[in-house]
Design brief:
Blueprint: H1 2-18, H2 20-31, E1 32-37, E2 44-45, E3 51-63, H3 74-82, H4 86-92, E4 98-104, H5 106-109, E5 118-127, H6 135-138, H7 150-154, H8 156-159, E6 164-169, E7 182-185, E8 192-195, H9 199-216, E9 220-226, E10 233-240, H10 248-251, H11 261-270, E11 280-281, E12 286-289, E13 292-295, E14 302-303, H12 305-310, H13 314-321, H14 326-335, E15 353-354, H15 364-369, E16 374-375, H16 378-389, E17 393-395, E18 400-404, E19 410-413, E20 418-421, H17 425-441, E21 455-465, E22 468-482, E23 489-496, H18 505-508, H19 510-522, H20 530-535, E24 553-555, E25 569-571, H21 580-590, E26 593-597, E27 601-606, E28 612-614, E29 618-624
Parallel strand pairs: 2-8, 26-29
Antiparallel strand pairs: 1-6, 2-3, 3-4, 3-5, 6-7, 8-18, 9-10, 9-23, 11-14, 12-13, 15-16, 17-20, 18-19, 21-22, 22-23, 24-26, 25-28, 27-29
């Protein structure tokens, strides 16, 4: 017995004194468990604050009945907020701890936060209010809660917060007690990011592109809208006929064709190598260089540089570009940003292709002048034309406008970031005038608006498939500066291999551009400076408005005349208080043409609401700022 007692005391001493810390730790591990409290992922919103990606916080709820201050009234409040029958609440509260899985929204649990004995367990989920809006750009979150594609991936370190931690109790079998967790560290939410995108312009771009791809039976297409004064991307849409969501405006390259002729003109004007009235022969539409024959679809006897751009003459551009040295031609294209990534905040971006002069062949200079032998992305084209609109200063494009910390304070604001001066302001102005002539009397006339001048360029190029030019396949592209005098938006439209109708950009891409501009003008909150538009040099006013303070914009009619012949007269609908875009749609649906007078919210119409007017007649829509 003495030996047994000595052994027992010795073992006790060993366990308590020598191994005490070890056994205490194991006991604590068995009885408790540290859990991670997820942090709210930062939100993504458009430039006006419209949510594009949110972390929706829901809650599970637990109640400790013995902690309730008022066991009679508190259950009624729980039943009312959780939308659970009072009898079920009272039955659950008979247990030591009542658990309600929910999930319950923030509005439901807000009155319960200060209620003693009620314990909330937050659960976070990523939510996209408009899943199809800018999906390729915004991207998605993976199963691990981190960004997998798009901006969700590029901004993951900013959007991801710092998780917290808590401790829960377990019994000796390792099962968790049904009780509240003890919070050790509160989670810190991620930063919110305001994008440069304009949700309304994005919607306009996507709808117009969808219609164009469907109408032309094309393989796909891209649209980019950019503010040339800041480099901020306002909208970027990509569509593929197979339905695959890809950010092709960043990663897919193409040979630009005639939309690149303006850069050859920039090189010529910057070096004073051509006079405004200087002409070259049109060669009857066929011009042979070595073994290669260059063809113009609609030849002119002789052409100035303005004529060459206006009718998109390959022969004239090749002749004018022959005055450039290889280094000069290469340097100009490189200065405009081709052959290198733009630096935009996107996880993947193609650099394009622009070979150095030492790798050129004899026809390369002429090919580059026509927009061949180098490859670009739609984003690069938008940035390059943005330099022309911004008086020759190339800016780095941006998708992030502002970053706000968990407390709502801005930690970053985008400021225009100049890359380099490409041409002088005088040369940029001259180039914009050349592009304006393309719309007023050239291949871009299909994008002309009734009251505002547009500067633009068309491009139709053969497609390269698996390293070879595919017979019968073309890329139709169109780039516009709006308005032509002091551009506020650069718009790029690219349609891949249109199969129905004409494959020329003037027919396949220009109407898409005009449709987007018309809808942007009729929209209420898009990123357009209405004051600057009102001071821009307008075209001639519509008849009957010569003495009006505001020049009306006549919105083209989207319906065929035979759709309204059944009822020759109909009542003018009431549109007061609606946005310009909605009001125009309502009038169009009723069968009227629309002339806009003013900007903002619809005020009244002439003829007035309820008056009878002939189908197809013009109804003037008067608008003003919201009161």
């Amino acid at each position: 017995m003495v030996l047994g007692l000595i052994a027992l005391v010795g073992r006790a001493a060993q366990v308590q004194l020598i191994q005490g810390r070890r056994w205490s730790t194991e006991a604590r591990v068995q009885r408790t468990e540290h859990i991670v409290l997820a942090a709210r992922r930062g939100a993504l919103s458009d430039r006006h604050g419209k949510p594009l990606a949110l972390t929706q916080e829901t809650y599970h709820l637990g109640v400790a009945p013995n902690e309730l201050r008022d066991p009679e009234r508190d259950p009624a409040l729980l039943a009312r907020q959780l939308h659970v029958p009072l009898a079920d609440i009272r039955l659950a509260l008979r247990k030591r701890y009542a658990y309600f899985a929910g999930p319950f929204t923030t509005l439901q649990v807000r009155p319960l936060r200060g209620l003693r004995g009620v314990h909330l367990e937050p659960v976070v989920n990523r939510f996209y209010p408009q899943p199809d809006l800018a999906q390729a750009v915004i991207g998605r979150v993976g199963d691990d809660g981190h960004g997998a594609t798009g901006l969700e991936r590029a901004l993951d370190s900013i959007l991801t917060g710092q998780p917290g931690s808590a401790v829960v109790l377990k019994d000796r079998d390792g099962r968790e007690y049904v009780s509240q967790a003890r919070v050790i560290k509160e989670p810190v939410a991620g930063a919110d990011v305001v994008l440069t995108l304009d949700a309304e312009l994005q919607d306009i771009a996507q709808r117009a592109l969808d219609d164009a791809v469907q109408r032309t039976q094309a393989d796909g297409g891209d649209v980019v809208m950019l503010d040339p004064s800041t480099g901020e991307v306002l909208a970027i849409a990509s569509r593929r006929r197979d339905g695959v969501v890809r950010p092709s405006a960043f990663i897919d390259t193409f040979e630009p064709g005639s939309i690149a002729k303006i850069f050859a003109a920039a090189a010529l004007l910057a070096r004073d190598l051509v006079e405004p009235d200087e002409r070259v022969s049109g060669e009857g539409g066929r011009y042979r260089i070595g073994r290669r024959t260059i063809v113009d679809e609609e030849p002119l006897p002789s052409l100035t540089l303005a004529d060459a751009l206006r009718v998109s003459s390959n022969i004239a551009m090749v002749k004018f570009a022959a005055r450039l040295t290889r280094d000069a031609q290469y340097t100009t294209l490189r200065d405009f940003g081709f052959g290198t990534p733009t630096g935009i905040e996107f996880p993947t971006e193609a650099a394009g292709r622009l070979r150095p002069p030492r790798e050129w062949t004899r026809p390369s200079a002429g090919s580059l002048a026509m927009g061949y032998e180098f490859a670009v992305t739609p984003m690069q084209i938008a940035v390059a034309y943005g330099a022309l609109a911004n008086d020759g200063l190339l800016l780095q494009p941006a998708l992030i406008r502002q970053v706000r910390g968990p407390a709502g304070r801005p930690t970053y604001r985008h400021r225009p970031e100049p890359v380099r001066r490409v041409v002088t302001p005088a040369v940029a102005t001259a180039l914009r005038e050349l592009l304006r002539g393309v719309v007023e009397a050239g291949t871009g006339s299909g994008a002309a608006l009734a009251n505002f001048p547009v500067a633009a360029k068309t491009g139709t190029a053969r497609r390269v498939v698996h390293g070879r030019y595919a017979p019968g396949q073309y890329t139709a592209s169109f780039v516009a500066l709006f308005p032509a005098d002091r551009p506020q938006i650069v718009l790029v439209v690219k349609i891949d291999d249109p199969r129905t109708g004409s494959y020329f950009a003037a027919q396949a891409a220009a109407p898409v551009m005009r449709s987007m501009l018309e809808q942007a003008l009729a929209a209420r909150d898009v990123a357009l400076d209405r004051a600057r538009l009102s001071t821009a040099a307008p075209l001639a006013p519509a008849p009957g408005f010569e003495n009006d303070g505001v020049v009306p914009y006549v919105v083209p009619w989207p319906y065929r005349p035979d759709t309204v012949t059944a009822r020759p007269f109909r009542a003018v609908p009431g549109v007061a208080g609606r946005s310009m875009r909605d009001a125009v749609r309502a009038l169009h649906r009723r069968g009227f043409r629309v002339a806009l007078n003013g900007w903002g919210v619809a005020r009244r119409t002439a003829p007035a609401e309820g008056d009878s007017a002939a189908a197809g007649s013009v109804v003037t829509l008067f608008a003003g700022r919201a009161r």
